[in-house]
Design goal:
The protein is an alpha+beta fold. It is built from 4 helices and 8 strands, in the order ααββαββββαββ. α1 packs across α3. β5 and β6 form a beta hairpin. A 4-stranded antiparallel beta sheet has the order 2-1-3-8, with helices on one face.
Length: about 170
């Protein structure tokens, strides 16, 4: 298991089992020391169980982003009830570390397998990670991101793309 994924797993297990927040490792890998937006995804038996992240860095390093977002993914994703201790053995984790977003002129500069998308309209913003099962077209990707942001399907929105390093 990759150290970033191990950190997410240990964080959720400690928080769900003991109510305690894990500290960043004393010996951090190079990736853990970087600053970047991070998403932590939980799957149970192949189905999404929680996914929370940050568009851009909100803490001092990737390790702290993982800890913060792993706890949120397991307890604060509004689509799911909080993870319970009995579920921990059935959960698989992935960590996506985001590149700096780049504004694009239009959908032709997107690719749902390679790039994630951010849609922005006024204060509303929605993000969809790349290479998600069942999201095969740019149109689907933009539509889902707009739904997440509360942006209507016919409203214009700024488009941004980013790449991820996915760790599983």
């Amino acid at each position: 298991m990759h150290p970033l994924v191990q950190l997410a797993k240990e964080t959720v297990e400690k928080y769900v089992s003991e109510g305690l927040i894990k500290s960043p490792p004393e010996l951090m890998t190079a990736e853990m020391k970087e600053k970047a937006g991070v998403f932590v995804s939980l799957k149970k038996k192949g189905r999404l169980r929680g996914c929370i992240g940050t568009f851009s860095p909100s803490t001092g390093n990737v390790a702290k982003e993982i800890i913060q977002n792993a706890i949120s993914a397991s307890t604060k994703d509004p689509r799911f009830p909080p993870v319970e201790r009995e579920e921990l053995d059935d959960i698989d984790y992935s960590v996506d570390v985001l590149s700096e977003p780049l504004r694009v002129k239009g959908p032709e500069e997107l690719d749902p397998k390679r790039y994630g998308v951010i849609v922005k309209k006024d204060w509303r913003k929605g993000l969809l990670l790349p290479d998600l099962e069942g999201v095969d077209t740019v149109e689907e990707q933009i539509s889902i991101a707009k739904q997440k942001a509360g942006i209507g399907p016919d409203e214009d929105a700024e488009l941004w793309r980013f790449e991820v390093k996915r760790y599983i």
